[in-house]
Write a structure and sequence with these properties.
The structure is a single chain. The chain has eight helices and seven strands. It has helices at 10-20, 42-49, 65-79, 97-104, 113-132, 149-160, 168-174, 182-195, and strands at 2-7, 26-31, 57-60, 84-86, 166-167, 202-208, 211-216. The longest helix has 20 residues, at 113-132.
């Protein structure tokens, strides 16, 4: 089976591939550059458009979503309907991840055993990662980052609700310091996003207007 991984952190992609791909699988890795309006993966785009390479399944970073919808999917859909899953999709909750991926990729038939088994292994690998990086009260992840108290509280709120999106109004109710203007809350969210170190396994993304979620990023 041909499998293509694309994202910002190649180390993460190779780790996922090592845990999910068989020896006989042909695996390709592409880099995504989060620059410009939507970012781009020029090499992947050119390979698919020219049909030099094609995969049985694509595994993408969720930070590529806008680029995928606007630029990549129109090209991909003209050539072949191939499953595309986002390994850190904030809407693919533990226990529901496989059904979410299948819902987004109805072309995956039950008899397509190879793709089904691959996605099953990928989901299990992601579950293991979250279990391994579970925050404990005695050693919370945010202790690795030098954050002021209000940003620590904000990170803890997002982590406790990492299975779903958190709205601006919820943040205002949960953390007293944020019971001010929405502009102040957005400013603190921006500061928190910029505070994560390079080796932090999470990223804070905007899932819809006024809602944010902590997702797996490494």
């Amino acid at each position: 089976m041909d499998i293509a991984f694309c994202g910002i952190n190649e180390g993460v992609l190779r780790s996922l591939a090592q845990k999910t791909c068989f020896d006989g699988d042909r695996v390709s890795f592409y880099n995504f550059c989060p620059t410009g309006k939507r970012g781009e993966s020029r090499e992947l785009f050119d390979d698919v458009r020219s049909e030099r390479f094609f995969a049985d399944v694509f595994v993408f970073d969720y930070l590529m979503y806008e680029w995928y919808v606007v630029e990549f999917f129109p090209i991909l859909s003209k050539i072949k309907r191939v499953p595309v899953v986002f390994y850190n999709d904030p809407f693919a909750l533990p226990g529901e991840r496989l059904s979410h991926w299948f819902c987004k990729n109805p072309q995956i038939a039950d008899e397509n055993a190879k793709i089904f088994l691959f996605l099953e292994r990928l989901s299990s690998a992601l579950d293991s990662f979250f279990e391994k990086n579970k925050v404990e009260e005695t050693n919370p992840l945010w202790q690795k980052v030098d954050l002021p108290p209000h940003l620590r509280g904000l990170f803890s709120l997002f982590y406790k609700n990492r299975g779903r999106s958190v709205s601006i109004s919820e943040i205002s109710k949960e953390i007293s310091i944020f019971k001010t203007s929405k502009r102040s809350i957005y400013a603190y969210i921006s500061r928190l996003q910029k505070s994560f170190p390079a080796d932090c396994p999470f990223n804070l993304v905007r899932t819809s207007k006024g809602k944010y979620q902590l997702i797996l990023d490494a």
